[in-house]
Amino acid sequence: MTASLESTQQSKMDPVRLSWNLTVTDRRLMWLQKTHPCAHGDKLHLWASGAFKEPSHSLTVR
Hints:
Blueprint: H1 2-13, H2 24-35, H3 41-49, H4 55-58
């Protein structure tokens, strides 16, 4: 009886579900956090949501 109780408690405490998916914005934000570890979080979130482009994009040669 205690084993089944422990398994139900573990499943309730587990925050990650199998059906949980990241949005495109979340993936971009995670990538930006890895590429720019010292940048401010608010600015990274704006970049991820597409509010403005990353500074490296403006430096590319056409």
